[in-house]
Hints:
With 722 residues, the protein is mostly helical. Among the domains are: 100 residues, Alpha-catenin/vinculin-like (Four Helix Bundle (Hemerythrin (Met), subunit A), Up-down Bundle), CATH 1.20.120; 111 residues, Up-down Bundle (Four Helix Bundle (Hemerythrin (Met), subunit A)), CATH 1.20.120.230; 113 residues, Up-down Bundle (Four Helix Bundle (Hemerythrin (Met), subunit A)), CATH 1.20.120; 160 residues, Alpha-catenin/vinculin-like (Four Helix Bundle (Hemerythrin (Met), subunit A), Up-down Bundle), CATH 1.20.120.230. The chain is globular, with a radius of gyration of 30 Å. 38% of the residues are buried. GO terms for molecular function: actin filament binding. Belongs to the vinculin/alpha-catenin family. Keywords: Cytoplasm. InterPro entries: Alpha-catenin/vinculin-like_sf, CTNNAL1, Vinculin/catenin.
Amino acid sequence: xxxxxxxxxxxxxxxxxxxxxxxxxxxxxxxxxxxxxxxxxxxxxxxxxxxxxxxxxxxxxxxxxxxxxxxxxxxxxxxxxxxxxxxxxxxxxxxxxxxxxxxxxxxxxxxxxxxxxxxxxxxxxxxxxxxxxxxxxxxxxxxxxxxxxxxxxxxxxxxxxxxxxxxxxxxxxxxxxxxxxxxxxxxxxxxxxxxxxxxxxxxxxxxxxxxxxxxxxxxxxxxxxxxxxxxxxxxxxxxxxxxxxxxxxxxxxxxxxxxxxxxxxxxxxxxxxxxxxxxxxxxxxxxxxxxxxxxxxxxxxxxxxxxxxxxxxxxxxxxxxxxxxxxxxxxxxxxxxxxxxxxxxxxxxxxxxxxxxxxxxxxxxxxxxxxxxxxxxxxxxxxxxxxxxxxxxxxxxxxxxxxxxxxxxxxxxxxxxxxxxxxxxxxxxxxxxxxxxxxxxxxxxxxxxxxxxxxxxxxxxxxxxxxxxxxxxxxxxxxxxxxxxxxxxxxxxxxxxxxxxxxxxxxxxxxxxxxxxxxxxxxxxxxxxxxxxxxxxxxxxxxxxxxxxxxxxxxxxxxxxxxxxxxxxxxxxxxxxxxxxxxxxxxxxxxxxxxxxxxxxxxxxxxxxxxxxxxxxxxxxxxxxxxxxxxxxxxxxxxxxxxxxxxxxxxxxxxxxxxxxxxxxxxxxxxxxxxxxxxxxxxxxxxxxxxxxxxxxxxxxxxxxxxxxxxxxxxxxxxxxx
Length: 722
C-alpha cells in the first residue's frame, strides 16, 4: 500500500475515483499501524524491562501512520495543488520520510518482541533445569511424583515455546538442529520417568544409577543446544564447526572448476588441489570401513586416483591458457573441465551406492530386533551370563549402525539431512549403553516390574530410531535421484498437544493397505502435478521471486502428501496430513497475495484473468483449511477427510499449473519491451513472515500476543530504504 502511494504518477487531471483510492490507502495504512501498535503496547505493559524502548518505537510508528493518513487526506479537495493544505501532491517527500520512519519503528518493535520470546525460552529452560536438579536428589516416591508433575507442566510450556520458534526459523539447518533437540527431549522425558522410578525402587543398584544419570546428562545437552540455536551463540565463544561431507565438498569443488570458464584468475591451483585432498581424505571413511564391500572399496580407490590425474591435466591446460588464450587451448580447457567434473560425479555416485546399499542391508538384517527380544527374555529370567552375551551383540550392532550413519551423512545431499544423520548417530551411541544398563538392572532384579518397564522404554527408543532410519534412507535416495529438490521446506512437522499432559492426546492413525490402494490414483495425480509445478517454477530466472518461492513451497508440501498416500515420507499419521494441508492452504493464500501485488504492476489484457485466478486460489485454499480443521471421529470418517484433503490439494495444484505460466508470460512480455508492467516498485519481496504456522491461531496467540503482532505486519508491504 505504501509503495502504491510512493510510486503513483503525478497526472494533471485527477479523477474523484483516484482521489478516493489514495485516501483509502492512507487510511488503511494508518489503521493497520494502529492495530500493530496496540499489540506492541500490550507487550510493553507486560515486560517492564523493555517498556520504555517498546513504547518509544510504538509512538514513532503511530506518528508515521498518522502522517501518512494526513498527507493522503485528499478526497475532499477539488484543487489540492492550490490549497494551503499540505498533501501527497504538494509534499511527496513527506510520505517517503513517513514511510521510512514507519519501517524503522516497526522493525524496532519486532526486534524487541523477538528479544522477549528469546527471554521466555531461556526462562522456561531455567525452570526445567531447576526442577531436574530436584528430581535427581529425591529419595521418596511421594516426593518424586509431586516434583515430576511440576516438571511435566514445565516441559509442556518449553515444548510449545520451542515448537513455535522452530516454525519461525528461516535457516533450514537451525530448524533441523532444533527438531533434533526437541525430539531428544520428548523421548527422554519418558526415559527419565522410568529410569528414576527404577533407581528409587533399587537405590543400591549401580547399573540403575548409571542408566538414570545418562538420561539426565542427555537432556541437559539437548536443553543447551536449544538455547544455542535460539540465541545464535556457542559456549565460551566457540565457533560452530560445520561438519563437511563428501557431497558438499564435491559440489563446491565442481563450482570452482566450472568457474574457470568465466575467469581463469579467480583462484589458485593450490586452492583446487587442497579442496580435492579434503574430498579424498573423506573417502577414506569408506575405504577404511570394515563394512564397505571389497568391490565398492576398489572402485572408490580407482576413482580417487583418476580424480588426481584429471586435476593434474586440468591445471596444466589452465596454466597454459593463462599465458596464451588461444582457441585450441580454450577448447582443451573445456574438455579438461568436463572430464574432471565427470570423474567427480562418478565418485559421488560410487560413495552414494556404498553408503545406501550398506544401510539397506543393515536395516533389513536388524528389522526383527532379535537381540532386544533376547535381552528382555534373559533379563526376566535373571540370567546374567546370557545378558552379558547379548549386550556384546548389541554393542556390535550399535557400532554397525553408528558407522552407517557416518557414511550416510557424507551422501545425504542437504544440510538438514546431514544433521538428521548426526542426530541418528548420537541416538545409537547413547541409547545402546542405556539399553545395556537397563538390561543388567533387570537381570539383577528379575521380578521388578519397573525395571522391566524401563528396559521396554529404551528398547522402544532404539526400534523407533531404526524405523526413522528407513525413512531417512528414502529421503536421501529421493534427493540423489532428483525426486526432491535441495529446498526441503518442512523437515519436521510439530504436533500441537503432543507434549501436553493435560490434554487428551490424539490417537495417531495411519492408512491401512486397503485405504492406500483406494487413494493411490489420487496420490499419483498429485505427484504428477508437483512435477509440473516444479517445471514451471524452474522457468523463472529470478528464483528469489516471492511467487516462485511460494510455488516451490506448495509443491514440496504436496509431494509430502503424495508420499503419505504410499505410507512413506515424513507425514506419519492422518493428523500430520491434516496439519500439512492447513500449512499448504496458508502458503496458497500467501501466493495469492503475491499475485495481487504483481497484478498492480500489470497493464495487460491478461490482468483481469490473473486476478480472477488468484481469487479462485484464495477460495480453494479457504475450503481446504475448513476441511483440514473439521473434527471427525471413526475410521471411515477419518479416511473420508483424508480423501477430501488430498482431492482439494490436487485441485489447488491444478490451478497453480495454470497460474504460474500466466505470471511468467506477463513477465516475459515486459522483458520483450511490450510494457505490460509498470516500473518495478522498491517493494520488499522478502516481507516479514510469521513462519510455518502448524499450530491453531488461538494457541499461537498466547505468546504475549507476538504472533498477532506479526500477523498485522504481514498485511503491510514496506518501503525498502533507498
